[in-house]
Design a protein that fits this description.
Elements lengths: L2 E2 L13 H7 L6 H6 L7 H7 L4 E14 L2 E13 L4 E9 L2 H14 L2 E2 L21 E5 L2 E7 L6 E2 L2 H10 L4 E6 L5 H13 L7 H4 L4
Parallel strand pairs: 8-9
Antiparallel strand pairs: 1-2, 2-3, 3-4, 4-5, 6-7, 7-9
Helix pairs in contact: 1-3, 3-4, 5-6
């Protein structure tokens, strides 16, 4: 179930980096501008200011154990997917003894990993020209898992596993074919491989982008 991402009060934020200071002063007003200028997200509060209406969903909760001198300590490990369902997506992980704290850590981690996703209508079976799918084939890999995403015509839907479908939904993609191999039961690697595939949509500049760079 999608939930609103908690944000900080801008007046209480004290930036610790140059990029954060630019955002605080209003010299950077959108995530698009930040990525266009090839600036890194150095503080999670930057995302709170530039894109406050993000949503997230918990896709995996596991209990992990750590061996210490006092014995084994059990902690929750949470994996979440975050996005605005309109071209920006992320994922994050967090570990803590309390589930609430683990989710908060995962949200913070996801804010630091948010990326833009290039959408389009790259299927030869569809000529609508709307950004409902992907502009071309992309592949991502994490661990033993490799995910390939291909453009699909309008109305196809998301032909993907449940975890990957959640990631694509939060990225704002409505139609796509997918192919995966490896240990896809490992949810974290499956999500990360899909994330890397979406990251690669901006790996190179297309002919359509030439005019936009002028």
């Amino acid at each position: 179930m999608a939930e609103e991402v908690p944000v900080i009060n801008p007046e209480e934020w004290k930036p610790r980096t140059k990029v954060g200071q630019l955002v605080k002063e209003g010299k950077l007003t959108s995530l698009k501008e930040l990525f266009d200028r090839n600036l890194p997200i150095t503080e999670p509060e930057i995302v709170d200011i530039l894109m406050p209406k993000l949503k997230y969903e918990v896709v995996d909760i596991r209990i992990v154990q750590k061996q210490t001198d006092a014995g084994e300590i059990s902690r929750y490990k949470v994996l979440i997917v975050m996005g605005n369902m309109d071209g920006y997506v992320s994922f994050g992980t967090g570990k803590a003894r309390q589930l609430r704290v683990a989710i908060a850590k995962a949200i913070r981690d996801a804010k630091m990993n948010i990326i833009p996703v290039r959408r389009g209508c790259g299927s030869w079976e569809c000529t609508c020209g709307e950004p409902h799918s992907l502009p071309f084939k992309v592949t991502g890999k994490a661990g033993s898992v490799e995910v390939t995403l291909l453009p699909a015509p309008r109305g196809t839907g998301l032909v993907a596993g449940p975890a990957l479908k959640t990631l694509l939904t939060y990225a704002g993609i409505k139609d796509v074919w997918s192919y995966s191999k490896g240990m896809t039961l490992t949810t974290e690697n499956f999500i990360k491989a899909g994330y890397m595939a979406l990251y690669n949509t901006y790996k190179f500049v297309t002919v359509m982008d030439w005019g936009r760079k002028r």
